[in-house]
């Protein structure tokens, strides 16, 4: 009991620092959104990667960067309907 | 003539009375008749004891103070100020008040063994009289109205006091206080019948104000305009009227002001709003009685009327012929607890009563620990009954109203929090917090606050209750408003508690409270207390206000503070206002800087206040502000510099001390030029006050001198010329060394002066004190010299001075009656600073040391051994190796010392000699020394252990060949025990020594012993052995150890195998990257261990894997790691916390070694497994990966089947040919 409580607290502390941390009840929607956002953050965060992708897309780096940041909003579509 | 006769008669009477009193056991003597009662019987009507019960007007206490005031009117702003601010004409031959205080209730106070432990734990028993005044204030004020409530309808009558009512009440209280004082005064003056004529000139009370006066003339006519601090306009007119008509008003003949009339309820007319505030049992009594008081000893006769128990009935009645009947249907015994709560008062028993023997039945029964609906409590005190009695009255739940049920629910939860076991407390606290809004503020605080005011409250209980309030505040938010004042009354005393944590707790509560209630409400609640008649209330209110300021930031509070500090209505308000500003920087530190100017402006005028107390507190506030803002913000103080410096010239006594303090803190803020100028202005006063007999003044002056001297603008020449002579004349006297605080201050100030004027100047002045006859004074000189030389070196010391110095220090070292670390440090520092210059004194010093080493008292021996270790490096520098050899030989002879402390010091001295002279030239030779050390290794004393192991380690490191291998083996055995010492330093030294020895004599023999040791049953020693093996492997390369160790794993014995695994774990931890050469060698062993049936086996193997994996990160052992991961992974579903933790750590470590891509392939499968049992550990792995390597996970996220997560960015491919073509086309376009 006390142990469960502690793990719960540890998880909360972790989650307050790292948003993408999950638990047994994480839904697929949450998880995939996190994956998508982390990916975009990573593309934007590595200058070489960003340059490469901009060349591939045929647009300026800044444009690509803004696109990626823009895409972090609802990256996998609207949240699923709640069933209850 | 008749006068003379009367006098004679009077004297005669007194003599007779004294004689009668002196004769012990004589009959009562009636001085009125001057006749002893001749009958041999004692009179029935007279009191027997004439000592105590005097029968006539002859007052033998005449001339004494019959009562000692609990607190005089003094403000407490100067913490250490003792009462004698006046100048004593007679020299002081007794301890000062401060000293006496310190022994009575300071740090040196001894516990009173007559007070029970229970009593000692109570907060009230530790408080000073001043703090106890909080208790006196302990009447909960009625609930206040909430004028700021959001949805208040205009017509709704609120049940609570409004601000106006409270202000009116406060005024009445002040008036009462004034009248009471006036009456007292009158009684004092006129009590002897003849009226006492006060001089027409100014009374003594006003003298302090008058003599210094305000530096700015106050304009004679006062403007009468409407001010903030006058409650209503009608009041002003009333005031005017009253002043015209009746200068002296009593509240009876007051004409009720039209507006204020209904509000002017005296507090006597108010029915207490709280029923629970006064304990129910005391209803009808003026002061509520404590249950324990109610039942005075021996008067509880309920025991007699208690029903007989079954055992007693069995004893009384014959067993046969009787039958126990069932009670008739419908019969209900009286609820027992209801009676218990309020015992039938025994008839007022005036006559003689036999002491009742304690009835065992009544003892256990009175205090239940098991309350229905609460469970078993840790304890239940008699006092708790008063608050929680309702829980045991056995009332039926379904008969109670909802309100009552709620009350009981809260009561139960509070009881659990206060008296319950920790887990109970936790759940109850959470329940209270969660349901706080349902319970409502009233219901909660009406129960919590009375509990906090209980006299027998203990620290732990208070802490818990305060915690409850804190939690509840968060939830209630603005619902607390009506209760803010009640909470403040209870919490404010915490702000002046001696306990630091209590103060912090109090601050936290008040800051939360102000956040919940809002600034406006806080101000309107606390405003009436600002000019309260009682200084205690004003003091605590000021502190609380400072907390409010720090919680809600200063700017919104500034207009209010400004108004209060300039209040013309009462000096108390101004005093409190300034005090608030004093407390703010103390709480907030440099955070006052942005508002410094405004804060200073608020109080600037109060420097010239007509009231001395206000002036003093203002100067203290300025000191606090300047201290907090150091080294910035001098421009904010510009406005007050002039009044401050002018004021310092006019003030005397306590006021001057405050001004000087403020000046002392402001000078360091100034730039050089100004600092120089202002210092020279103030120095005159400082030098005058050097000779002040007042302790407080002395302290302040010393502080200011050290502050002035450390500012850049003050030159050494100036200090030498003007300050030093007077300073040394008045402060370097024997008396200063006797008081601890003075001592410290003088030393610090002298050192600060020394920083400016140089070491030689100061030392030459105090060196003669080293030969003074007072030991404390000598010590003071030694400490000062030590600090100065440590800071400035001895280059400034001339040859002549050097001689005097060494001579003096040797003298004071020899003459000390109590061995003191100060002397030792002083000697060591001086010798070290002089260096080669003390060569000629060394023989003398050494002979002193030798003589003292032979002393019969242990501390003397210890001190001289310590001194050797301090001066050994210098002796070798001076080329006195012969003397060192002599010393070490003597020390060697003293190794049989029986006192461990001394032995430790001797070993330390030997060690430092070995360090400086080297092993080869050591006298006595190492081969003699080491065998003497082996038995000492067995000594359990920490100091001895530490010093021996250090010495042995040094020998093992530098010259192991001096001793034969057998001796080293013996030492190895002794060392094994030391590996589990408590002190980390010893363990580390033992580890290192182990390594050195193994290196010296080769690992084989050592390893054999260690492996044997693995079979020992005792766990602790197996662990130590494992550690030792790891160390040996590290120092002698792993290949010397691993084969033997792995061979040992073949022993079919769980303990041994486990020990091997454990040593492997330490081994790999220590060798780190070296592991890469041994990975493939140990993999088969780990394979076997990881598939063992035994949990612990797998656990230990997992920790080996962890250390191996972490050692080989990036070194190309991925295949082996992946193999181990495959073996580890099935253990993921272990449930034992230790095992699963090790397994997860190992998997994480492997992930480090092989990268997240591969390991995450194992993880994806289980993240959305249908079984929660599977998902939980998989998510744990995912989370740790996410935290540690989120970025490198990005390329490896799985491809989802449904197109919800398109990551087409990853599909972008740049074709170089395409690029070139487009580039060419662009170029062509621009060309054409």
Automatic annotation (TrEMBL), chain A:
InterPro entries: SF3b5/RDS3-10, Splicing_factor_3B_subunit_5. Pfam families: SF3b10. GO terms for cellular component: precatalytic spliceosome; U2 snRNP. GO terms for biological process: mRNA splicing, via spliceosome. Belongs to the SF3B5 family. PANTHER family: SPLICING FACTOR 3B SUBUNIT 5. This is Splicing factor subunit. It comes from Pseudovirgaria hyperparasitica.
Automatic annotation (TrEMBL), chain B:
One of its GO terms (molecular function) is mRNA binding. Residues 1-45, 69-89, 118-264 are annotated as: Disordered. Residues 31-45 have a biased composition (Polar residues). Residues 129-139, 167-197, 228-254 have a biased composition (Basic and acidic residues). Residues 999-1077 form the Phosphatase PP2A regulatory subunit A/Splicing factor 3B subunit 1-like HEAT repeat domain. Residues 246-358 form the Splicing factor 3B subunit domain. Keywords: mRNA processing, mRNA splicing, Nucleus, Repeat, Spliceosome. GO terms for biological process: spliceosomal complex assembly. SUPFAM superfamilies: ARM repeat (SSF48371). Residues 71-83 have a biased composition (Acidic residues). InterPro entries: ARM-like, ARM-type_fold, PP2A/SF3B1-like_HEAT, SF3b_su1, SF3b_su1-like. Pfam families: PPP2R1A-like_HEAT, SF3b1. It is found in: Nucleus. GO terms for cellular component: spliceosomal complex. Belongs to the SF3B1 family. This is Putative splicing factor 3B subunit 1.
């Amino acid at each position: 009991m006390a142990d469960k409580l502690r793990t719960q607290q540890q998880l909360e502390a972790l989650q307050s620092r790292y948003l993408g941390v999950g638990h047994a009840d994480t839904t697929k929607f949450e998880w995939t959104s996190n994956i998508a956002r982390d990916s975009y953050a990573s593309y934007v965060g590595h200058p070489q990667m960003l340059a490469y992708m901009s060349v591939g897309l045929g647009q300026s780096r800044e444009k690509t960067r803004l696109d990626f940041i823009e895409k972090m909003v609802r990256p996998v579509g609207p949240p699923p309907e709640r069933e209850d | 003539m008749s006068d003379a006769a009367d006098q004679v008669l009077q004297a005669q009477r007194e003599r007779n009375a004294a004689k009668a009193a002196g004769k012990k056991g004589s009959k009562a003597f009636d001085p009125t008749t001057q006749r002893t009662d001749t009958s041999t019987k004692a009179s029935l009507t007279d009191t027997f004891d004439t000592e105590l019960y005097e029968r006539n007007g002859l007052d033998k206490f005449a001339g004494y103070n019959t009562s000692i005031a609990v607190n005089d009117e003094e403000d407490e702003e100067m913490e250490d100020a003792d009462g004698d601010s006046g100048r004593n004409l007679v020299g002081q031959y007794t301890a000062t008040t401060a000293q006496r205080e310190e022994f009575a209730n300071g740090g040196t106070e001894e516990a009173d063994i007559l007070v029970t432990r229970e009593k000692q734990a109570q907060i009230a028993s530790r408080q000073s009289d001043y703090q106890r005044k909080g208790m006196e204030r302990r009447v909960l004020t009625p609930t206040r109205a909430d004028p700021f409530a959001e949805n208040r309808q205009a017509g709704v009558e609120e049940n609570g006091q409004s601000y106006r009512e409270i202000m009116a009440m406060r005024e009445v209280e002040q008036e009462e206080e004034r009248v009471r004082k006036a009456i007292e005064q009158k009684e004092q003056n006129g009590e002897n019948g003849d009226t006492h004529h006060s001089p027409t000139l100014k009374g003594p009370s006003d003298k302090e104000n008058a003599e210094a006066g305000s530096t700015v003339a106050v304009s004679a006519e006062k403007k009468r305009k409407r001010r903030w601090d006058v409650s209503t306009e009608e009041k002003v007119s009333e005031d005017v009227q009253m002043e015209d008509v009746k200068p002296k008003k009593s509240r009876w003949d007051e004409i009720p002001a039209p507006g204020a009339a209904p509000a002017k309820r005296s507090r006597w007319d108010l029915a207490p709003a709280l029923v629970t505030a006064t304990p129910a049992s005391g209803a009808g009594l003026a002061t509520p009685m404590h249950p324990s008081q109610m039942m005075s000893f021996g008067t509880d006769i309920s025991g007699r009327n208690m029903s007989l128990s079954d055992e007693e009935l069995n004893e009384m009645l014959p067993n046969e012929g009787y039958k126990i009947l069932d009670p008739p249907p419908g019969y209900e015994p009286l609820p027992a607890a209801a009676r218990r709560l309020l015992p039938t008062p025994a008839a007022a028993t005036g006559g003689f009563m036999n002491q009742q023997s304690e009835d065992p039945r009544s003892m256990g029964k009175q205090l239940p620990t098991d309350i229905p609906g609460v469970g078993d409590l840790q304890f239940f005190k008699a006092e708790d009954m008063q608050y929680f009695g309702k829980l045991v009255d056995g009332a039926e739940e379904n008969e109670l109203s909802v309100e009552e049920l709620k009350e009981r629910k809260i009561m139960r939860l509070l009881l659990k929090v206060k008296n319950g076991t920790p887990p109970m407390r936790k759940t109850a606290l959470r329940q209270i917090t969660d349901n706080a809004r349902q319970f409502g503020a009233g219901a909660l605080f009406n129960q919590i606050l009375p509990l906090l005011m209980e006299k027998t409250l203990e620290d732990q209980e208070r802490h818990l209750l305060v915690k409850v309030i804190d939690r509840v505040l968060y939830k209630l938010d603005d619902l607390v408003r009506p209760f803010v004042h009640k909470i403040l009354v209870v919490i404010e005393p915490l702000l002046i508690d001696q306990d630091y944590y209590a103060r912090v707790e109090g601050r936290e509560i008040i800051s939360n409270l102000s956040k919940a209630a809002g600034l406006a409400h806080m101000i309107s609640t606390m405003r009436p207390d600002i000019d309260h008649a009682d200084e205690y209330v004003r003091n605590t209110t000021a502190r609380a206000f400072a907390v409010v300021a720090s919680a809600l930031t200063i700017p919104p509070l500034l207009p209010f503070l400004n108004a209060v500090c300039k209040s013309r209505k009462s000096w108390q308000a101004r005093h409190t206002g300034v005090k608030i500003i004093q407390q703010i920087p103390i709480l907030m530190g440099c955070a006052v800087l942005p508002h410094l100017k405004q804060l200073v402006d608020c109080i600037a005028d109060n420097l010239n206040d007509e009231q001395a107390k206000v002036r003093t507190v203002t100067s203290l506030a300025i000191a606090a502000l300047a201290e907090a803002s150091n080294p910035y913000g001098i421009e904010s103080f510009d406005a007050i510099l002039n009044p401050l410096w002018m004021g310092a010239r006019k003030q005397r006594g306590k006021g001057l001390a405050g001004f000087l303090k403020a000046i002392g803190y402001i000078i360091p803020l100034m730039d050089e030029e100004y600092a120089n100028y202002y210092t020279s202005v103030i120095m005159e006063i400082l030098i005058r006050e050097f000779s002040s007999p007042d302790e407080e003044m002395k302290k302040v002056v010393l502080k200011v001198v050290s502050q002035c001297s450390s500012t850049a603008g003050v030159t050494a020449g100036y200090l030498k010329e003007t300050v030093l002579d007077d300073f040394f004349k008045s402060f370097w006297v024997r008396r200063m060394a006797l008081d601890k605080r003075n001592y410290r201050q003088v030393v610090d100030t002298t050192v600060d002066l020394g920083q400016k004027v140089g070491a030689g100047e100061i030392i030459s002045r105090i060196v003669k004190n080293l030969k003074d006859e007072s030991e404390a004074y000598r010590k003071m000189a030694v400490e000062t010299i030590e600090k100065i030389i440590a800071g400035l070196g001895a280059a400034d010391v001339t040859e002549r001075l050097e001689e005097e110095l060494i001579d003096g220090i040797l003298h004071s070292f020899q003459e000390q009656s109590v061995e003191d670390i100060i002397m030792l440090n002083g000697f060591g520092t001086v010798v070290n600073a002089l260096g080669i210059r003390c060569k000629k004194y060394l023989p003398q010093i050494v002979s002193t040391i030798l003589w003292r080493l032979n002393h019969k008292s242990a501390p003397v021996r210890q001190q001289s051994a310590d001194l050797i270790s301090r001066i050994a490096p210098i002796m070798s520098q001076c080329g006195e190796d012969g003397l060192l050899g002599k010393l070490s030989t003597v020390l060697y002879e003293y190794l049989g010392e029986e006192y461990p402390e001394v032995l430790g010091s001797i070993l330390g001295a030997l060690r430092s000699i070995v360090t400086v002279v080297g092993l080869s030239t050591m006298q006595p030779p190492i081969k003699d020394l080491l065998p003497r050390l082996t038995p000492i290794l067995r000594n359990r004393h920490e100091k001895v252990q530490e010093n021996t192991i250090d010495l042995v380690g040094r020998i093992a490191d530098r010259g192991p060949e001096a001793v034969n291998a057998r001796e080293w083996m013996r030492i190895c055995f002794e060392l094994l025990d030391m590996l589990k010492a408590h002190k980390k330093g010893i363990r580390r030294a033992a580890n290192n020594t182990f390594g050195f020895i193994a290196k010296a004599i080769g690992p084989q023999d050592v390893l054999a012993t260690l492996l044997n040791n693995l079979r020992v049953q005792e766990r602790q020693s197996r662990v130590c052995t494992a550690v030792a093996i790891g160390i040996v492997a590290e120092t002698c390369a792993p290949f010397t150890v691993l084969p033997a160790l792995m061979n040992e794993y073949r022993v079919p014995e769980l303990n041994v195998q486990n020990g091997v695994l454990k040593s492997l774990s330490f081994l790999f931890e220590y060798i780190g990257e070296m592991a890469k050469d041994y990975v493939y060698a140990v993999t088969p062993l780990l394979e076997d261990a990881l598939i063992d049936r035994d949990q612990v086996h797998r656990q230990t193997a997992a920790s080996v894997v962890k250390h191996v994996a972490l050692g080989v990160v990036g070194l190309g052992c991925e295949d082996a790691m992946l193999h181990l991961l495959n073996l580890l992974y099935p253990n993921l579903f272990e449930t034992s916390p230790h095992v699963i933790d090790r397994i997860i750590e190992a998997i994480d470590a492997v992930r480090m070694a092989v990268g997240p891509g591969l390991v995450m392939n194992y993880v994806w499968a289980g993240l959305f497994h249908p079984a929660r049992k599977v998902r939980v550990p998989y998510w744990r792995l995912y989370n740790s990966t996410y935290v540690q390597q989120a970025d490198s996970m990005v390329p490896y996220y799985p491809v989802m089947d449904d197109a919800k997560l398109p990551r087409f960015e990853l599909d972008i491919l740049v074709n170089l040919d395409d690029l070139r073509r487009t580039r060419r086309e662009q170029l062509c376009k621009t060309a054409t």
